[in-house]
Amino acid sequence: MPELPEVETIRRGLLKTVKGKRIKTITVLLPKMVRRHALPDEVTRRARGKVVVDIRRRGKTLLFFFDSRDVLIFRLGMTGQMLWSHPKAMLKKDKYTHVIIDFGKRERVLFRDMRQFGEVYITTESHLEKVLAMGAEPLEEGFSLGTLKQITSSSMRIKQLLMDQRKIAGIGNIYSDEILFVAGIHPLKQADALRKKELLLLHRAIGEILTEAIARKGDTIGQYRDLFGESGGYQEVHRVYQRGDEPCYRCGSLIRRIKLAGRSCHFCPSCQR
Fold first, then answer.
1. Residue 189 pLDDT class (50, 70, 90 cuts)
2. Can you give the C-alpha Rg of the chain in angstroms?
3. Which of 13, 63, 156, 180 is 20 to 30 A removed from 250 (C-alpha atoms)?
4. Phi, psi (deg, nearest 5) at residue 178
5. Which residue in the list 57, 60, 167, 217 is annotated as catalytic?
6. Which fold does the domain 4-132 belong to in CATH?
7. Active site includes 263?
8. What is the pTM of this model?
9. What's the chain's average pLDDT?
């Protein structure tokens, strides 16, 4: 599932290609992809003819800001892709192409989603945060050690808390494993049991891992591709994620894989306590 680094990579590609351009039309080929806040026809009507004044990211969502002060929102779900099609690299729609944003002059963005867990919807800037209902952005300046301490005042397991989008926006299964390994924290530890030093290490690891993953243009272990169809490179440097029964790079112990709330969880039993 695309997490913060993958969505940020796509956002940066969209900034280069569609910011400042006017939408000729938007076509919703699979109506059920519009799951809330507006019917497909309303999304089409409100997006048609609008200029994309900015592309932002909130957690794992992509936000197209229009000159009308509407915001078109894409959630990529498990297998969602956004791909740029233009005269030098024309892409054909296929059975997994569910939304097409047409800018004219044969320039389009295709939204593909094999498993159809993604969605698209539209709202106003004034209602955006209420609609998204997300927690703190972990790479913003406001995400201080004090903020993290406040967020972790919970009896939740720390891995589950890191993946709770209402508390911290953008971290999922891949990066929660990687962050906790770098911080040396066991994934089953209660969040409110973290000591001051552990909080400091966790805060540092969140910034380190997410920044590194963005620099590598995300993690391609499944369907993820960037806007130009290229794979990410973070999968080449996994510390623990998907390395069950392989030796830890730090201590040589075998990486363990367990289930936590129905999700896989990878950690080093020696390095993470």
1. very high
2. 20
3. 156
4. -65, -40
5. 60
6. N-terminal domain of MutM-like DNA repair proteins (3.20.190)
7. yes
8. 0.96
9. 96
